[in-house]
Amino acid sequence: MNGLTKFFIATALTVSVTGTSIGYAQLSDTLNVIGTVDVTPPDGVFIYEVNEPSDGKITVNNYSGTVLNSTTNLGADGKSVATVEISVYNNSGYVYVFNTVKYLEGAETYDNQNIHYDLVGLSKGQEIEGEGTITFTLEFYYLNPEEITNTILNSVLNFEFVPHADYVPEIAVDGAAAQFEQILNTDTSFNKLITQMESTSWDRLSNTYIGNVVGATSTDSAVLNELFTVDGKNYLTLNINGEETNVTALIKSENLDGNASTGDESGNEMTIYMTADDLTTMRYGSNATVYACVFTKVGDGEWYQIGQMYEGTATVCSYVGFWGHDSFNTDNWKTAVAYYGIAAGATIETVVAAIPEEER
Question: What percent of the chain has pLDDT over 90?
Fold first, then answer.
C-alpha cells in the first residue's frame, strides 16, 4: 500500500475530538479523542509522504501542507550529502505549478549557512496535474567543505505551488537585451567586445566567450560593465518578480542554427546568458537559473533578437570551466520550461531550430 493510499484511508475515517486542532503534519504522540469531526485532505498541493533516510543524517520533525520541518546532521565529512525523498499530491481538479522554495534564515528555520540544498526532480515552472503526484529528492550538502564549524542544520522549507492561472514566469525582458542589441550594432562597442573576447587568457577556457560573473578576470568584467553602463545607469538588469534585479552575464559566440550565411562572418550567433543567482553560494555541478537571448544578422544587416528570452539552467563551475563555483557552463544550458511545444530540458540549439518563422 503506497503512502497516498494510506493517507486517504486515514483521512477518510471519522474520529472523535474535542478542543483539538488536527493538521496534516506527521504525528508521533498518542491522540486521545472525544466527540466527532470529519477529517478531509486539504485542497491544492500538499506533502503526503516523506521517506526518511535510513542513514540517520536527516530527521523529519514534521510536515504539513507543503512545509517540511527537518534536522540534518552531515557529520565531519566535507563531501557528505544527505537526501530525503518527498511526495506531493494535487488534491484539486486544476493544474498547479511549482514556483519556489521559501524559508527564513534564523534559529530553527534555517540556521546553518554552510549547508545548502538542491532539488532533484522538481524545478521552477514544473506542472502537477489535478489529482496528480510528484516525487522529488531534497539534497543537503556543505557549501565550503573546508570550513566546517557546525554539522547541524535545522530548517523549515516551504515548497510553494501555485495555481497555473496565478503563475507568473519569473523573467520579463528588460534593459539587458535591448542594451546588448545596441552594443552589437554600434561599431566601437562591438569591436571592444570582440577584441576582449578574442584576447588570449589563461583565465578563460576559450576565446569564444566573455563574462562579468564573479570569477571573470578584472579586464573581462571591466569591459562588460562599461558596455552595459550608459550615463551611470547599469543596463545589465532583468525584471524578476516585478523587481529590477542586477544580473551577471556570459556572452558567447556560437553557431546555433547550423547556417553559415547568418550571424557573423563565421556563421556564429551572439548569445547572452544571464543569471541573478549568487553563484558563490552554490556548489560545483549544481544548477543555476540562467536566461538566454539569441541574436543574429543576415549579411551586412543589423543584429536582431530571434525568438524570445528563454529561462533555463546551467551547471555551476569556474570561469575556466572546471571545478569551482564562480561561473556557469553554457555548454550544458537546458530550458527550464517548454518552448514551441518542446518539453523542458532542451538545448539552446534545439530551441533555436524550433523558433517560428515569424520570430526569426
Answer: 59
Residues 26, 34 contacting (CB under 8 angstroms): no
- Whether residue 4 is predicted with pLDDT greater than 50 in this model: the reply is yes
Answer for the pair 160, 99: CB distance below 8 angstroms, yes or no: yes
For residue 132, give the amino acid letter.
G
C-alpha cell at 285: 555541478
Copy the grid coordinates of residue 352: 533555436
- How much is the pLDDT for 99? 84
pTM strictly above 0.70: no
pLDDT in tens, 46-58: 999 999 898 999 9
Whether the per-residue pLDDT at 147 is higher than 70: the answer is yes
Q: What average pLDDT does the segment 123-135 reach?
A: 90
What is the per-residue pLDDT for 206? 87
